[in-house]
Amino acid sequence: MLVSGSAGIGKTALVREIHKHLVRREQFETVPHKYFISGKFDQSQRNIPYSALTGAFRKLVRQILDKSETQIEQWRKKIMEAAGPCGQTIIQVVPEAEAIIGPQPELQELPPAESQNRFLLTLQKFIRIFYQPEHPLVIFLDDLQRADPATLKLTEQIVTDENIQSLFLIGAYCEDEVSKGHPLKLALDALQKHGTIINHISLSPLKLKDIEQLVTDTLPQFPVSIAELAFQKTGGNPFFVSQFLQTLFNTKDSDLTAKSLQAKCYHFPDNIKELMEWKLKKLPEETLQTLRLAACLGSPFDLNTLAVIDKKSASEIFEHLRPAIAEGFVEPAGDSEIPESLKHQTSNIKHQASNIKHQTSNIKHQTSNIKHQTSNIKHQTSSIKQNFCLCMTVSRKQFMR
Ligand SMILES: Nc1ncnc2c1ncn2[C@@H]1O[C@H](COP(=O)(O)OP(=O)(O)O)[C@@H](O)[C@H]1O
Ligand SMILES: [Mg+2]
Questions:
Q1: Which residues have CB atoms below 5 A from the ion given as ligand 2?
Q2: Quick one: 40 and 176 in the same domain?
Q3: Treating both helix axes as pointing N-terminal to C-terminal, what angle do 238-250 and 272-281 enclose, rounded to 10 degrees?
Q4: Where is pLDDT greater, at 21 or 113?
Q5: 0.85 exceeded by pTM
Q6: What is the pLDDT at residue 386?
Q7: Is residue 146 part of a domain?
């Protein structure tokens, strides 16, 4: 399945939602072992063939290494059966596999074309062992427009594999970056010629009513008419919309009338690129310097590696990155990326957030109670009014009599 659309339109977000749905889906639950792996093609790793695909499989093999001895032994047998005498090929692309299959013999020297064929065939057989009826596999390849030709060739080979079963391949790409002669376009055309059916979802911008819903759900303190302004400024691109609303929210002005918000928005840039530049310029110089170095490492980057490059401690680097995290330029990948000294603070913040959630839920509950009581009072008032009218009618009748 392909998901396409412009940058920031919600391709990655949609597949993340599909992932959650797949994990929860009941009929899928009956399959005890299922795998969802993902890889993202990064500009900085374009010269490394198979980087996103092998990155995804390295994560999967790490998951296997956490399993019991018996299970690891089963995987060892499967990998060895698939690789035959070419186990070293697998170790070259997925170094973690060595911990399962042990050191492998050197590969026999072959002419370049044959060596390439052997490589592709071994890799394809290796990948095939992970998608089986007893453990289906979902592979999500993000930002396919940046995929290297080698990955496109291998993906083509996987998709056209006659033995393909229990594999769901999802690819996302940015439409604006894929013109007629683009390698991805050529690969897709080739698949189409081959008769492969590819489902395609093309995402379009949010509509005004979607943004109104977003404002009502996330910023109830804002007048809902701000959605119209957001729509005009952003054209409904979800990334731009959320950046726009966030920037407006961060101005922390108590005057939240539509007129005042409109005046504040007046100076906002009219496109994403300018808005991001505008936001970047507001970051402290040390944060920008750290971001420049992080950009050289690509995405995702490791805090400890960045600390070595910047000749600072991981905690210092984290502090430099903090404003960039707050503005959404950097997303911490998990606890392992956060230095020990800061884990405590993170856990405190999480605890407070959970408290706030709890309090919000309490307030919601009380509001609902108040609503219920108000409706009761209304009901009683209406009953009293009716009784009063009845009394009046009765007394009038008595009077008439
Ligand atoms: N339907 C939606 N409603 C609200 N926010 C969305 C929606 N789709 C995407 N977003 C938000 O927009 C931003 C960009 O989405 P993302 O999936 O990264 O875009 P893409 O992968 O197409 O570049 C993310 O912050 C995401 O949470
Ligand atoms: Mg994306």
A1: 12
A2: yes
A3: 30
A4: 113
A5: no
A6: 61
A7: yes
